[in-house]
Fold this sequence. Notes:
Elements: H1 4-15, H2 19-31, H3 33-45, H4 48-56, H5 58-64, H6 66-89, H7 105-117, H8 120-129, H9 141-169, H10 171-175, H11 178-200
Helix pairs in contact: 1-9, 2-3, 2-9, 2-11, 3-7, 3-9, 4-8, 5-8, 6-11
Amino acid sequence: xxxxxxxxxxxxxxxxxxxxxxxxxxxxxxxxxxxxxxxxxxxxxxxxxxxxxxxxxxxxxxxxxxxxxxxxxxxxxxxxxxxxxxxxxxxxxxxxxxxxxxxxxxxxxxxxxxxxxxxxxxxxxxxxxxxxxxxxxxxxxxxxxxxxxxxxxxxxxxxxxxxxxxxxxxxxxxxxxxxxxxxxxxxxxxxxxxxxxxxxxxxx
Length: 204
C-alpha cells in the first residue's frame, strides 16, 4: 500500500510546479516566510475536497457528468485569471520590515484553498491515481484510501513549505532590485493566466 512506488510517484507529482507551487513561491517572495506557510497550508487543505470526492465515489460522477466538470472548470479559470489580473496590477513595493502583512493568515489560507478546490483536474487525477495503490483483497479499501490520502497531503504540505522557504531566502535580492520585482510580478501573473488558459482548453 504505502510502497516506494507510491512515495516516489507522489513526490514527483507534488514537485511539479503548478498553481499551488506558484502561489506559495510568490507569497514567500512578496510577504515572507510565515505567509508562505499559510499559503502552503491553504493549498494542502484545498486537496481535501478532491480526495473526499474520490473516496466517496463522486469523482466517477464528475468524470461522466460533463456539465459538473465544465462548471467547476470554468469557475477555476475565472479565479485564476482574477489572481493573474490582481498580481499584474499590484504595483506596491515588496518590503522586508512591514509593520503588518498585506494579507492576513486567514485570507492567504482561503485564497490558496480556492485555487486548489476550483481545479476539477485534481479530482480526476486522484480517481486514477489512488486506486492503483490499494491492496486487492485487503480488509476494506476505505482505510487504505484514507491512509494514502493522508500521506499525499503530508508530502504536499512539506514540499510546499520548502518551496516557500526557498523563495523567502531570495527575498533580499528581489527587494533590492525594482526591475527584478517588476519581472517577477509579471512572471507570476503570466503563470497564473497560463494555467487558467490551460485549464480552459483542457478536455476531460
